[in-house]
Amino acid sequence: MVRRIIKNNQKNTWNCFIKIVLSFFVILFYVCYYSVNAKPIHIIAAENMYGNIAQQIGGNTVQVDAILNNPDEDPHLFELTPHSSQKINQADFIIINGLGYDSWIDRLLNSFHIKNNKVISVQNLLNRASGSNPHLWYDLQAVKNLANELEHKLAAQQPENKSLFIHNRDLFLNEIKQIDQRIQRIRALHSQLYIAATESVFGLMAKNMGFIVLEEPYQWVVMNGGEPTPQQIAQFTHDLKTHKIQILVYNNQVSNNATENLKSIALEQKIPVIGVEEIMPPSLSYQKWINHILDKLESVLQRLPQ
Question: What is the pTM for the complete model shown?
Answer without folding.
Answer: 0.86
